[in-house]
Amino acid sequence: MKQLFFGERGITMPRKGPVTRRDVLPDPIYNSKLVTRLINRIMIDGKRGVAQSILYNAFELVQERTGKEPMEVFEQAIKNIMPVLEVKSRRVGGANYQVPIEVKPERRTTLGLRWLVNYSRLRGEKTMEERLAFEIIDASNNTGSSVKKREDVHKMAEANKAFAHYRW
Question: CATH number for the domain including 107?
Answer without folding.
Answer: 1.10.455.10
